[in-house]
Design goal:
The chain is an alpha+beta fold and 172 residues long. Helices cover 25% and strands 30% of the residues. The protein is built from four helices and eleven strands, in the order βββββαβαβαββββα. The strands form three sheets. The protein has a five-stranded mixed beta sheet with strand order 7-6-5-10-11. The protein is globular and about 40 Å long. It starts with a strand and ends with a helix. 41% of the residues are buried. Its EC number is 1.11.1.24. Keywords: Antioxidant, Disulfide bond, Oxidoreductase, Peroxidase, Redox-active center. Belongs to the peroxiredoxin family. Tpx subfamily.
Length: 172
């Protein structure tokens, strides 16, 4: 059974349980399998040789998640070809594609963790009570080492965008 962590995160001040390990900068980035679309799964190795900023959101159809994804879409334009920004959520690939089209988000790659919650469990962000992934940010260097990790303590708050972007820029 996967490790459960309680007392470190909340949703609207109510405690939630996160499943999986609590990662830190310096750890090797765990592998995962997520859906890029209905027929194509991808894993960490599909982004080999790139600096990866992984923005995790519970659902693109909520205000903070929408703002977070739009913000990183804007930042992607300034970071160059060595960087890829991935947004992981439990939304179905159809919903992600619809949302991106409506929002004009073209620089961020959306990935769905809905099939197996592989990402959520590997990165310690799967919320037991909701089967959603907890808002968090991971920056992974070209050698697949974590260089920046931000687990939010309250699901409805924004991450520290500047720190995450600066962590990516420090690797360029």
């Amino acid at each position: 059974m996967a490790q459960e962590r309680t007392g470190i995160a909340t949703f609207k001040s109510n405690p939630i349980t996160l499943i999986g390990p609590q990662l830190k900068a310096g750890d090797s980035a765990p592998d995962f399998t997520v859906s890029k679309n209905l027929l194509e799964d991808v894993s960490l190795k599909d982004y080999a040789g790139k600096i990866k900023l992984i923005s995790v959101v519970p659902s693109l159809d909520t205000g903070v998640c929408d703002a977070q994804t739009r913000r990183f879409n804007e930042e992607a334009a300034t970071l160059g070809d060595d960087v890829i920004i991935l947004t992981v959520s439990m939304d179905l690939p159809f919903a992600q594609a619809r949302w991106c089209g409506a929002a004009g988000v073209e620089r961020v790659v959306t990935l769905s963790d809905h099939k197996t919650s592989s990402f959520g469990e590997a990165y310690g962000v799967l919320i037991k009570e909701f089967r959603l992934d907890m808002r968090s940010i991971f920056v992974i260097d070209k050698d697949d080492k974590l260089t920046y990790v931000e687990y939010l303590s309250e699901m409805t708050e924004h991450p520290n965008y500047e720190n995450a972007v600066n962590a990516v820029k420090s690797l360029l």
